[in-house]
């Protein structure tokens, strides 16, 4: 039962990136290719090329897909302001790393031994951009392996707010 709940939670976090990556871009839904998210995954450089940041009803979702198709999704509940947000099993934030295709999903909510943080250092309301850093460990829901996402940088990525 607990594994089913974790799988459903991870799926709910991953679904927005799947549906949004197939949508046509318009002015209300910016996708930035000249600004990006970068990180290291287990020491290997990762670059997000299709990135979206959305704030809807005080829920902030940061999602980015690499050229190979792997993705990072960070969701923060009650958090659309500058500051530090904890990502773990008991916080109001979570992160997911999804391997390429139908590969395994990893989450900060999969185990009490993983987690991390995201720091939103700047929200530019004039240009509608967001910058910050992040690092966290995620737990594989199937393999029970841990992956380390480190040196994460969000560099002036456009956002939408509703």
Could you explain how this protein is built, in words?
The chain is mainly β. It has one domain. The chain has one helix at 2-21, and strands spanning 37-41, 44-56, 59-66, 71-77, 83-87, 93-98, 105-107, 116-124, 129-140, 146-161. Strands 1, 2, 3, 4, 5, 6, 7, 8, 9 and 10 form a 10-stranded mixed sheet that branches. Strand 1 and strand 2 (44-56) form a beta hairpin. The longest helix is centred in the first third of the chain and has 20 residues, at 2-21.
Gist?
The protein is mainly β and 162 residues long.
- Summing up helix and strand content along with how strands pair, one would put the structural category as mainly beta
- Uncertain segments are 1-34
Query: How many separate structural domains?
Result: 1
Beta-strand percent range: over 45%
Overall shape: it is globular
Q: State Rg.
A: 14 Å
Tell me the number of helical segments per DSSP (H or I, 4 or more residues long): 1
Order of helices and strands: HEEEEEEEEEE
> Considering DSSP H and I runs of 4 or more, what fraction of the residues is helical?
10-25%
Mean pLDDT: 82
- Give the distance, in angstroms, between the N- and C-terminal Cα atoms: 35 Å
* DSSP strand tally: 10
Largest sheet: 10 strands, mixed
């Amino acid at each position: 039962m607990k594994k089913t709940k974790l799988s459903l939670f991870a799926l709910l976090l991953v679904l927005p990136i799947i549906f949004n990556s197939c949508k046509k871009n318009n002015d209300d839904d910016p996708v930035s290719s000249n600004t990006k998210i970068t990180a290291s995954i287990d020491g290997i450089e990762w670059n997000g090329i299709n990135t979206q940041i959305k704030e809807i009803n005080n829920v902030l979702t940061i999602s980015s897909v690499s050229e190979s198709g792997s993705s990072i999704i960070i969701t923060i509940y009650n958090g659309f302001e500058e500051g530090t947000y904890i990502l773990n099993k008991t916080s109001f934030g979570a992160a997911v790393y999804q391997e390429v295709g139908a590969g395994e999903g990893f989450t900060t909510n999969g185990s009490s031994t993983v987690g991390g943080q995201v720091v939103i250092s700047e929200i530019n309301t004039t240009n509608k951009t967001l910058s910050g850093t992040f690092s966290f460990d995620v737990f594989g829901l199937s393999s029970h392996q841990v992956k380390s996402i480190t040196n994460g940088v969000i560099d002036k990525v456009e956002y939408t707010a509703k």
